[in-house]
Amino acid sequence: MAYKIGDECISCGSCAGTCPVEAISEGESHYEISEDTCVECGACAAGCPVGAIVAP
Ligand code: SF4
Ligand code: SF4
Which residues form the 4Fe-4S ferredoxin-type domain (predicted)? Predict the structure, then answer.
């Protein structure tokens, strides 16, 4: 399991820099989290301005 980014994402990019394992990258329609890389630390969710990142 991993944190997920929803359609609310406005592609601001701030979450990518907060991930300690670089699991976040820009996807086709919004930013995405690599399920295999995410260690579920929650750091990204706390900083998203629109609350687009949800826990597993
Ligand atoms: Fe990265 Fe942690 Fe967010 Fe997973 S929960 S994408 S490891 S910052
Ligand atoms: Fe999208 Fe939130 Fe990440 Fe910004 S911080 S790119 S709005 S998920």
Answer: 1-28, 29-56
